[in-house]
Amino acid sequence: MKNLKLYSDSTLNLELPSIKEAVVSSAFDIERNRLLFVSDANFIFTTQISSFHDGGGWSKTALPAEIDILDLEPGDFVTSFHYLMEKEALIVGTSHGLLLLHNVDDKVTEEVGRVEGGVKCISPSPDGDLLGVITGFGQLLVMTYDWDLLYETSLVDDPDVDICDGAIPSEQAFESHISWRGDGKYFATLTDVCGSTSSHDKQIKVWERDSGAVHAVSEPMTLVGTSLEWMPSGAKIAAVRDEKSENKSPSVVFFERNGLERSSFSISEVKNATVELLKWNCHSDLLAAVVRSGKYDFLKIWVFSNNHWYLKHEIRYAREDNVRFLWNPTKPLELICWTRGGQISFFNFIWITAVMDNSTALVIDNSRILVTPLSFSLMPPPMYLFSLNFPCAVRDMAFYNKSSKNLLAVSLADGCLCLVELPALDIWEEFEGKEFCVEPSISEAQFGSVIHLTWLDSHKLLSVCRHGSVYFMQEIDILCSENNVPGSVTCSGWHANISNQFSLEEKVIGLVPNFSENASAYVQCQGGKILEYEAKVSMTKGPVVKQDELSFSVSCPWMSVVSISSIGALNSLLFGLDELGRLHLSGRIIFNNCSSFSFYSKLADQVITHLVLTTKQDLLLIVDIIDIFNGELELKYVNFNHGNNKKRGEEQANVINIWERGAKIAGVLHGDEAAVILQTIRGNLECVYPRKLVLSSIINALDQVRFKDALLMARRQRIDFNVIVDHCGWQAFVLSASLFVKQVNNLKYITEFVCAIKNESIMETLYKNYVTLKKEAVDVQTEENVVGDGSSKVSSVLLAIRKSLEEQVTESSERELCILTTLARSDPPALEEALERIKIIRDLELSGSNGPKRKAYPSAEEALKHLLWLSDSDAVYESALGLYDLNLAAIVALNSQRDPKEFLPFLQELERMPAGIMRYNIDLRLQRFEKALKHIVSAGDAYYSDFINLIMKNPQLFPLGLQLTTGTTKRAQVLEAWGDHLCNEKLFEDAATNYLRSSNLEKALKAYRACGNWTGVLTIAGLLKMSKEEITQLANDLCEELQAMGKPSEAAKIALEYCKDVSNGLSLLISARDWEEALRIALMHSNDDFISEVKSSSLECASSLIGEYKEGLEKVGKYLARYLAVRQRRLLLAAKLQAEERAMSDVDDDAVSEASSNFSGMSAYTTGTRRGSAASTASTTASKARDSRRQRKRGKIRPGSADEEMALVDHLKGMSLTDGAKHELKSLLTCLVMLSEEETAQKLQRTTENFQLSQIGAVKLAEDAMATNSISEHAHTLERYTQKVRAELHNWESFSWRSKVFPSL
How large is the average pLDDT for residues 863-871? Predict the structure, then answer.
């Protein structure tokens, strides 16, 4: 569904030496990009094609050309004229049989041969090896470029019959033709049938190039003229057949290489029309012909698509102009026309989509526009809904779709302007199969040949047209004199008048309306310059044309302006696509590899939200338009400016791989449809639904609180239903659940929705790359999917839906099944509540009730089967048991296909038990131990042993068991049993408490002694009224036990307080390094030996600490130096790897992927993972073994290992002073000062302070180096960081052990 748009034309005139002189033939020099013409006076004109493109203006009319003359005999003239690139010269054939080689640059002519009967046709082969020549006597000669004749044969079957017995009359000089296949292996000729009575009976002969043998001959038929054209691709041979005998216009017939007719189509003209010339373009997709009919020569262009020939463009010339044309052999959409009078025209075409902004296809086919609303159905061409018929061929059109108006303006090949108003789209189905005849508008002025046409508003048109050789811009006012009948197509009564007109100096190549401004349009001039046209708003002379800052860097034949919404304001963006595939936006290039583009709007106001484009690598890209507006393309779309950004095996949210090569965007379906329509090269349409657009439309529906539409879209496109819940957060959905149920109003759909709900947030997992969550939704989703009361997302949502169903939906079987679904799908499943509802239904059935309530419910069996289908049958069976309804449990077991031999004996046994014991056994089976405990207690004292065994096997029941136990003896037994359990669990403190509660002091003493609580032991000893000797012995034992447990300070207290052993207590205090307390005890007893022992021990300890911290200071420096070296090497290696990866990324995406995977495991210490999957498939056992070895070696630093860097940092952090060390230091400093050892104290403090400063500075330096990608020799030094720490010393709590009276260095 595309139309051929003329976007640029240029017309210049050759200055012929004589008015009577006429141009008769042309040639094309591909290498030097120039055109050559020859006149009937044997003048050769050479002109550069750049003359038609340079300057960008329409003001010049004369074509600069070099003129040369062929020196021929009087009466001789040129009959064939071609440029041979291999010879860099013209090959010229004349009526007297001369074959001339003319060098245009040197103006030298060389006669290379002469043939009898004159030269009728010369045709070089496409591969540049051979020349085919037809003489006036009907002889076919094939020769090389060295003029060696390969073979000569007659065109007619009877060699005795001469086609001509003399020289060729000038009026028949160009009647014969040779057409080569694109590869040069075969060529075809059109010859008369020997012995035929009709002069029109001709046949096509296909010749073999090398041997000159006839390969195939077609059946004789009434082929007219000499038009014969072999498609460059080699698929078809085109000729013209006369259909006058059937009272029809001529038709174009296609033959295969074997001479068989393949297909044909009518040229749709009067029967007396003739086809003068027929040519394919270089891509074999366009066929152009000159059709002579009446006063005009019509240049028609057809295209073949979906087995139908569309007439896409028509250009009219006066008959006396005798127009001829050729396609540019290097540009498939550039047509070059010339007339006898020397008027040379260049027509540049582009393919544009026939799908308008409202997804309506308007396909041009001759004098018809085929209308297809794609939003109704994807109707493949050439099918259509209805057609608009015009008086003659359609050249251009403009569609207006705004403010509920559908207006169509059409320019025709005869210069007329037609207008049509279409009704609202929703009633177009009534027009199926209809044809509407459109009348030309009534106008007092001539519009000329319209090149560009667009709407300014619903009453104004803007056009660029040509009158003769002058180009104008016209503002046209539109008015309809007929009353518009609602629901009908208005095809007549239109008036069009030119309200303003001015000539153009610059060449205009495009017009697009700017609907964000009133009656405004953007005008693109050649070279990409953009002007903004504003319709006149007063009676002042002329419109306002102002320079805009949106100009493109080059000409962009495809141009579109869109409106976007940004922070509540409307903005316009002007896009352009140039011929190299670069997509421009307001003066900058945003994409380098685009083949087609379109826009999608999720809103009803036509505000664009997404850019959709295809690449030359057959990828479909979806881009948020707001990201383009904010300049975030490179940030959010990685490698967006590279063509092949879809890596193999990797799914990307913004990219879809197009399955058919060369497919382009035909259009989009906006709003809830969210579809992109692609047209393949074959012509068929394919509709794709990009997930990003679908999710965007669903979210838009949710923002508008259209739950039903959102659900239907998600259901149709197989989108996870959790989108509806997670978009704004499930807490917000719970508040809207009643509205959701009311809008959907379909229990089947609600049931499907309920079954899909799950606890995870889909917007943060499955669809996180497709859409961006709202801020309020992000705030909600950052919390867990469980609220404060423990309710999960699933349970809360389903509870809200269940309540809404009960409140809003009348009772019915479907409603009950839907409610059961919400219960079964809850998290955890509310199976007991569901079974209670089924039990109610069963009770109604057993009661024999037949009232309306019974009829509003499904049968119990149906409901139970529904529940079993949704849930685990074992869970349902256990839930039925949990209701203590054995009959219901039996029904569940039968419907879940359980073996009766298994469940019936069990149920029968339960039925024989007392009610309490039955429930106790059921609770035990279901592991509901608290209920089981309550039931066994209620069964009486006879089951007390079962009670004790239950709580012993399930210790978590002890608190409940204690609450349920009455009587002092039984409580004491429970408490003692609880204490024994706690002792087994090594919880001796709690065990002792329970023993005390049960008055078991002996066990309490053992529990306290087991946990080392000496105060508790000695207290219990007092309660047991032990003797003094027993307590002393117990104290000595405790003192030894505590000393063995590494608690010398506590052992010292027992020795001093209970054992009265001062010497042993003092030794224990010194061992505990509690220097102040040791000195106090020594002075309290006024014993010089004790004081001397404390002094010598403290000095020895100070000396040892000084040595340790000096050694630690050296280690800090060594570890830090090693860390900086390792870090520097790692950074250098990382930079090298990045440089290599950047170099490789320019070569191939696959190579980059492989290289990245190979280097991903490399570090400064490893050789990479080049063995691929071999390393990743190691056994779990081996991995666990490695982990255990790492745990054992965590304290070691292995040089060269992968974790050496982090190990060094961890080791530096581990060298910090502990709280115990700080307390010891503070106590030791005080003791030394009290013992008059001030100098030792100062030295100890100074040494420790230096160590601590260096350790803290080293850690900060390592952390800073880890956070940067470069290490400075001046900034990252230990001295610098130590000074920083020293400057902030007063703020550090870590130095609280220091004595402030001693000065710091």
Answer: 90
Structure tokens at 800: 């809200």
Amino acid at 1274: H
Residues 6+ apart with CB under 8 A from 211: 151
What's the rounded Cα separation, in Å, for the pair 577 and 594? 8
Picking from 29, 30, 35, 31, the residue whose alpha carbon sits closest to that of residue 52 is: 35
Give the integer Cα–Cα distance in Å for 615 and 613. Answer: 7
DSSP code of residue 1301: T
With residue 317 as reference, give the H or E element that holds it: strand 308-318
Burial of 842 (0-12, 13-18, 19+ CB in 10 A): buried
Question: How many CB atoms are closer than 10 A to CB 230?
Answer: 25
Distances (CA, A) of 397 to 196, 400, 451, 511, 937: 49, 10, 10, 12, 93
The residues facing 420 across adjacent strands are 408
CA distance 688 to 690: 6
Rounded Cα distance between 560 and 552, Å, is 12
Q: What is the C-alpha separation between 1031 and 1036, in angstroms, rounded?
A: 9
**Reported pTM:** 0.74
Rounded (10°) angle between helices 1001-1010 and 1014-1023: 160
Instruction: Give the up-direction half-sphere exposure of residue 400: CA atoms within 13 A in the CB hemisphere.
Output: 25
- CA–CA dist 658, 656 (Å, integer): 6
CA–chain centroid gap for 597, Å, is 15
How many beta carbons lie within 10 A of that of residue 628, not counting itself?
A: 21
* C-alpha distances out from residue 1016 to 1020, 1039, 1045, Å: 6, 14, 17
Q: Measured between alpha carbons, how far is 687 from 665 in angstroms, rounded to an integer?
A: 10
Burial profile 46-80: b = 16 or more Cβ within 10 angstroms, e = fewer: bbbbebbeeebebeeeebebeebebebeeebbbbb
Average the pLDDT over 1073-1098 and give the result: 77
pLDDT at residue 1151, rounded to an integer: 38
Q: Which residue has the tokens 């911290």?
A: 1109
233: closest CA among 369, 357, 332, 86?
332
| pLDDT at residue 545, as a whole number | 67
Residue with tokens 């007219």: 224
Q: Residue 838: enclosing H or E segment and its boundaries?
A: helix 831-847
- Residue 142 CA to residue 131 CA, distance in Å, equals 6
pLDDT, tens digit (0-9, with 9 covering 90-100), for 1259-1300: 888 888 887 777 777 777 877 777 777 777 655 666 767 666
Q: What is the distance between the alpha carbons of residues 13 and 26, in angstroms, rounded to a whole number?
A: 14
pLDDT, one tens digit per residue, over 785-837 is 554 444 789 999 999 999 999 999 998 999 999 999 999 999 889 999 999 99
* Alpha carbon distance 677, 665 (integer Å): 6
Asked if 1007 and 1001 count as a contact pair (C-beta separation under 8 A), the reply is no
| Contact predicate 1179/1229, CB 8 Å | no
Query: Reduced to 3 states, what is the DSSP secondary structure of residue 546?
Result: strand
User: In the numeric block, which tokens belong to residue 631?
Assistant: 């300049």
